[in-house]
Amino acid sequence: MKGKPSLIFVLLLVVCASLAAQPGSAKTYQMTLLTVGEAGDDLFGGTAKAYLEVKPGSGRIFLDSFPLTKLDTQISTRYANKIACDYRDLDCTRYDFFYTIRADSTIVGGPSASAPLTILTIAALEKLDLKNDTVMTGTINSGGSIGPVGGIKQKAKAAQDAGFERILIPKFSISGKGGNESNASTNPIIRSIQITTTNNNTQNRSENKSITVVINDILVNNTERPEANHTPEENEADDRSDEKASDYDLTNLTIEIVEVRSLEEALPYFTDKMKAREALEIRVPDAYIKMMKEISESLCNKAYRLKMKVNLSESDRNKTVDFESKINASLESGDHYSAASFCFNMGVLLRKANINEVSLKRPDRLELIRAKTLQTVEALDNNLENRTISTLPEMESYIIVKERVIEAKQILKEIKGNITADELAYAIERYYSAAYWSVFFKLKGEPIKLDQDFLEEACYKKTSEAEERLNYADLYLPSILRATREDIDEAQKYAKEGNYKMCLFKASFAKAEANLLLSSLSIEKEQLGDLASEKLSSAERLIAKESARGYFPIMGYSYFEYASSLNANNESVSSLIFSEYSLELSNLEMYFPKHGFRLPNVNYEVLTLLGFTFLAGMAAGSLLTINLILRRMKERSKGQAEARSGVRRGSGKRRMR
Fold first, then answer.
1. How many angstroms separate the CA atoms of 369 and 352, rounded?
2. 89 or 136: which leads in pLDDT
3. 114: nearest Cα among 74, 152, 143
4. Which one of 154, 459, 473, 591 has the minimum C-beta count within 10 Å?
């Protein structure tokens, strides 16, 4: 019996030590990735293993890979993590993510693992085991859309050889349906996508500074790729190369091929245990409709009054007729934002004609008009800065008006001494737009605490996100997004001035522009309409979620409305632009902490210490209890022995008598 207490105590200490050795209760989640490599002129598919652990931390992301990973894989992994957290409405800043990739290739590169890594991250966040009969390839883009990758045939064959029943591939393909039957090595596919924001297609975006994104003469075959100064290495798992039609021919494979275009479509193939996201409808406040109608009426009435005063060229008359047709169609459908946008653009056209007439009769008056307009704009700016911002609608109204004021003021200062009708007309109409949009300061909202420290942190975070997306885009088309770089520079300038609201706005625009390029980089023009529709669906879900929480995104919904109108008119490229803006600006959580969507905050180190203390206490208590029991048993045995001894002595005395 003497050895039993010590043995029990030792066993309990072993259990405690085992518990203390665990840094947390993190589980490792895993899935198979697909790769494509090169050996000479041939492509071949392969597989890699991805693992993920989530532990308490501060939002850091670690990537351990063997072999080494290229920069695009590292950036796309970070983006996959963000998309997963946003998709499930979770605050991941209190956790660290440890990704591990093991592959046979000498270098791991390309973004095609980003979609499956998003699935893996969602599984870890939701504590879901993934099915092992399905594998996937595709990039992850804004809104959860799944973008095209190269090496589809080689990856599908690798998946089939590895025993998988099913492979998910992007619906938005590089070569499109049917592809190009010509030999890519001698007749490369040439893509040209021009995305231009001009005076004729936007009211909210900075029209005077055109954003021109040209993806032109990109040779997409097995030897020339979009990467800048990139030389393929043997056995390199890089998948940004495009394919010949024969490389996309999957008819000889027995594995099930499933095309998906979003996370929403892909997730059910990996798990049937995760709850589907609740279907929500956008609830547009009556006050928004009323105020947007007021803005459109003000802009349209001003334009029509101006039309009666000017003489137009035949070309301008035709443009005016086209604008009027679009205005009437928008008003009939109740789309007041689009009507306002078309009226603004028509107003710029008519104002230019008016200024040209003035310059012919009284050219000296142009400087007076410029100076008076600048004086009026500065007065509006002073009033704006003296406002107290206490609600989210006021915050958005401030940004909307401020952006127009800044633009008008900048133009009016720049053209001093060299006035042009185009720029003066635009600045004047921009001022009117700012003044009319001020009506949204009347839109009521719940008072919120706009924590300046949090806004500062959010500003720098959003700027970093924009910078990261821009650097990612630069890997494939360097120096294309010069205007986006200027937006980031402006965001940083606002940050230094302490205007974190405008910093967030500019950084959000820059990020949206980078996302725009990355989402459409390798997609056929014919598929841009479908891509715009997918982006609009994502924006609609986000706006509906925000409105259900009691926050209506004025800017996000305005862009959504306009993008929907453009897509309905088959203006796919412009629709895609504004759907990206809508997606980025509908996320109102960037303005204040995301308290409502935090994962359980469990400090596993403290929990382990408490567990160790508890078990140690149990061990000590058990030892004391056992010792007490043994002592009592010993005393009882001693008493019983003494009693028996007394009985024996008594019996002896009786016999002697």
1. 13
2. 136
3. 74
4. 591
Nearest to 218 by CA among 524, 11, 481: 524
Tokens of 214: 């040209």
Rounded Cα–Cα distance for residues 546 and 553 (Å): 7
SS3 154: helix
- pLDDT for 439-477, tens place per residue? 999 998 888 777 788 889 889 999 999 999 998 888 887
Dihedral over Cα of 492, 373, 430, 484: its sign: negative
SS3 39: strand
Read off the pLDDT of residues 332-350 as tens digits, 9 standing for 90 and up: 999 999 999 999 999 999 9
Question: What is the per-residue pLDDT for 448?
Answer: 79
Is 295 in contact with 439 (CB distance < 8 Å)? Answer: yes
Cα–Cα distances (Å) from 397 to 24, 177, 389, 390, in that order, read 46, 45, 10, 12
Higher pLDDT pick, 68 / 518: 518
- Whole-number Å distance between alpha carbons of 586 and 276: 21
Residues 6+ apart with CB under 8 A from 317: none
Q: Is the pTM of this model over 0.85?
A: no
* Domains of the chain (ranges, CATH numbers): 29-185+221-269 (3.30.230.10), 286-446 (no CATH)
Q: How many residues does the chain have?
A: 657
| pLDDT at 5 > cutoff 60 | no
> How many helices (H) does the chain have, and how many strands (E)?
19, 12
Rounded to the nearest angstrom, the gap between the alpha carbon of residue 629 and the centroid of all alpha carbons in its chain is 65
Share of the chain above pLDDT 70, in %: 73
99 membership: H or E segment, kind and range: strand 95-108
Long-range contacts of residues 299-306, Cβ cutoff 8 Å, at least 24 apart: 299/340, 299/343, 299/344, 299/347, 299/432, 299/433, 299/436, 300/327, 300/339, 300/340, 300/343, 302/343, 302/347, 302/432, 303/343, 303/344, 303/346, 303/347, 303/350, 306/347, 306/350, 306/351, 306/354
The runs of H, that is alpha helices, within 206-307 are 245-248, 263-266, 286-307
Beta pairing, strands 189-197 & 211-220 = antiparallel
Instruction: List, in sequence order, every residue forming a beta bridge with 146; answer none if it has no partner.
Output: 140
- Following CA atoms 515, 265, 267, 118 in sequence, which dihedral angle do they give, to the nearest 10 degrees? -10
φ, ψ dihedrals at 353, nearest 5°: -60, -40
> Amino acid identity of 124?
A
DSSP 8-state symbol, 597: G
Distance CA 380, CA 397 (A): 13
